[in-house]
Amino acid sequence: MDALRPIITNAGISAVLAASNDGLAAKITHIALGDGAYEPTGAETALRSERVRVPIGGGRRIAPHEIEVQALVDTGPSFWVREIGIVLEDGTLLAVWSSQSTPLAYKTDGIPLALAYYLALEALPADSVEIEVSGPSVNLTMLPLAVSTATEIIRLQRRAVETEVARLTPVITSAWCW
């Protein structure tokens, strides 16, 4: 698969520049997923076949022109994720990724899909885009899985230690004299 390189949309550039001119930063609030497969041009104003949109659950600024956004997709139908949209507070599509040949993931109904997405924003002024977190934290939702995995690892390690101790414990034999 080619690298996941989003295209900053023309509408997204305009929205960010308008916010910057007002002394504000544009706010990323949602990630949209769809099953449309195409090669983005930057002229997109919406995903071609949006299936689900979720609020940002986390993220951080990595550098003046680079941010990370995280989201938990815990709703929606089953589908192949073939397009992703990064959406601003006013609904403007800031960036879009899609592939005609390779899906990114399969979203299964009833099973959460955690996303972490890095955006390079060289085409925009430094620090002109912020993240607004309002969705569930991806880190906290993964905690139960991490705890159950750690518990199982400890169980397996204990069983291995008990087996090794039993193997190394000398067998005591008694002699009977008549």
Could you characterize the architecture of this molecule?
The chain has 178 residues and is an alpha+beta fold. The protein has 2 helices and 11 strands; from the N terminus they run E-H-E-E-E-E-E-E-E-E-E-E-H. It folds into 2 domains: 7-135, no CATH class; 136-166. The strands form 3 sheets. Strands 1, 2, 3, 7, 8 and 11 form a 6-stranded mixed beta sheet that branches. A 3-stranded antiparallel beta sheet has the order 4-5-10, with helices on one face.
Which SSEs are present, and which pair or pack?
Blueprint: E1 7-8, H1 10-21, E2 26-34, E3 50-55, E4 58-63, E5 66-73, E6 79-81, E7 83-88, E8 93-98, E9 105-107, E10 113-120, E11 129-131, H2 138-168
Parallel strand pairs: 2-11
Antiparallel strand pairs: 1-8, 2-3, 2-7, 4-5, 5-10, 6-9, 7-8
Measured between the Cα atoms of the first and last residue, the distance is 80 Å
Largest sheet: 6 strands, mixed
- Helices, by number, come to 2
Helix content: 10-25%
In angstroms, what is the radius of gyration? Answer: 25 Å
Oligomeric category: single chain
Total strands: the figure is 11
Global geometry: elongated
Structural class: alpha+beta
Uncertain ranges? none
Average pLDDT metric:
84
Number of domains: 2
Task: Report the β-strand fraction as a percent range.
Answer: 25-35%
